[in-house]
Design goal:
The chain is α/β, with parallel strands linked by helices and 485 residues long. Helix content is 41%, strand content 12%. It is globular and about 90 Å long.
């Protein structure tokens, strides 16, 4: 007589099967109630195919999607028991998942991986959100704001991740460049470590974004050429360097599955802050840079924001290769700072900055004077702040180019190596100038707005006529909202 084929709740004795002892406390297990896999492998409902059902209580923890579960399930005694009992008749995972997709009714079941993007409102986070939610079919991502998940509140992190049970974490959140020591410490360092601990607890990958600020100046700087940890470092550089070192330690001693993506000057559209490359563009468009705060021959590496998401996706798909690794992610060819300033100036057809190069000692003296003046004005109630990037002004006069040798030796391949900051410059300039003009941030740019419409003119010149038209007739921009009533 053959042994009875057990369902998972019978074998695991979890108490969540039909009429189980822990139903009132924990609820009925989805494997016990999901009927689309009934009789598979001789089980009741999904009792002998539980590894493809989300929300099961395995190992004392509620499990997420199949993609999240598959590694743990392969180590499960019950999974191996069913595999041995069924032998060649074991249904393939793909067939089981197809049966779950065949109906529109779902019981908290998903075949997609779920990721959490921390810092989703920024240039990098926004690019990641758009890419994964629109261009990658088997991944969905959530981007909680700081009100829902504050890196400064461990309880926020714990409750959010326990609720959503993600398959990976991406951290691209940073404190402002000019933030004080406390904020930089809590966001850039403690926040990064707290996320890493959560990833380690959930046994999922953690992708952390770092910065070239942790590297020395020089040409072809490698991933290993970091600066020494010193009190003299800026709050930003110190906190990012501490985070890198701690993540490495957690990987070596506790098995953290992490990857660090180190960026240089990031360029791209759709950033709501005026920082980094946008700060340079803004200072030229607003004519606040009268002379060259650099010198010929100073080169820096640049990172394309649109290329970051495909790289993150690649390292998620190739964890064996990328776990415990740090990569400089920059364009292959560095950019001369003077050349990019001249290109922007030429496009805008402006006179400044004039080609007079201010030596660094003189620029440093001017910066010191401005700081003194701002402090004096602050006592009178006038609030003025220097751009945060000015703390890195010395780098305007020194070359820092990052090596891409390690990146090129990896399995990742840039699908558009010809795209650089120069090929993207026209569209980037136009995007930000239009945006800043709309927000009344610049007045020196007088080019007619491309696509500006008559209604905007009516709004500006004859608002009474516009109101009468909208109330009496159907206004052209509102036709899409006609109800036919």
């Amino acid at each position: 007589m053959t042994d009875k084929k057990l369902n998972c709740w019978e074998f695991m004795k979890c108490g969540r099967g039909p009429k189980g002892a822990k139903i009132k406390q924990l609820g009925v297990c989805p494997a016990a109630s999901e009927k689309r896999l009934d009789r598979i492998h001789g089980g009741i409902n999904s009792g002998r195919a539980c590894w493809v059902v989300a929300g099961t209580l395995c190992g004392g923890t509620v499990q997420g999607s199949f993609a999240r579960k598959q590694v743990a399930c392969k180590r499960c005694d019950f999974y191996n028991k069913v595999q041995k009992e069924e032998g060649a008749t074991l249904e393939s995972t793909s067939k089981l998942l197809t049966r779950l997709k065949d109906t529109s009714s779902r019981l908290d079941i998903t075949t997609k991986r779920l990721g959490i993007i921390i810092g989703s409102s920024g240039l990098i986070g926004g690019a990641l959100m758009h890419y994964f939610n629109n261009k990658v079919g088997d991944i969905e991502v959530l981007g909680p704001n700081s009100k829902r998940l504050s890196l400064r509140q461990p309880k926020d992190i714990k409750s959010y991740f326990e609720k959503y049970q993600p398959d990976f974490i991406v951290n691209c959140a940073i404190a402002p460049l000019d933030s004080d020591a406390q904020l930089a410490y809590e966001i850039n360092y403690l926040g990064a470590v707290r996320l890493a601990k959560m990833a380690m607890q959930m046994k999922i990958p953690y992708i952390h974004f770092s910065s070239a600020a942790v590297l020395p100046m020089g040409k072809n700087v490698t991933e290993e050429d970091r600066v020494e940890l010193s009190p003299r470092l800026s709050n930003y550089a110190k906190s990012k360097l501490l985070a890198e070192k701690t993540l490495e330690y957690m990987h070596e001693t506790q098995g953290l599955d992490y990857s660090i993506v180190r960026l240089a000057v990031v360029y791209g559209k759709h950033d709501h802050k005026i920082q980094g490359f946008q700060r340079l563009l803004f200072s030229i468009a607003d004519q606040s840079m009268q002379f060259m705060l650099s010198k010929p021959g100073v080169f820096h590496s640049y990172t394309n924001s649109k290329k970051i998401p495909p790289f993150v996706n690649h390292i998620l798909e190739n964890r064996d290769e990328f776990t415990g690794q740090t990569f400089n992610f920059v364009d292959k060819e560095p950019v001369e700072l003077v050349a990019i300033i001249k290109a922007i100036k030429s496009y805008l057809d402006v006179k400044a900055p004039r080609e007079i190069y201010i030596p660094y000692p003189l620029a440093k003296t001017g910066q010191t004077f401005l700081k003194w003046l701002i402090r004096r004005l602050g006592r009178l109630g006038v609030e003025i702040r220097l751009p945060a990037e000015m703390q890195f002004m010395k780098s305007f006069y020194e070359t820092q180019t990052l090596s891409v040798d390690k990146l090129e030796r990896s399995s990742y391949r840039d699908e558009a190596p010809e795209v650089t900051v120069f090929t993207e410059l026209t569209s980037i300039i136009y995007y930000y100038l239009i945006r800043w003009k709309h927000f009344n941030l610049i007045t020196t740019f007088n080019e007619d707005l491309k696509g500006s419409s008559q209604p905007a003119g009516e709004f500006l010149e004859t608002p009474g006529t516009l109101l009468e038209t909208v109330n009496k007739y159907t206004h052209k921009p509102l036709k899409d909202f006609e109800t036919g009533l």
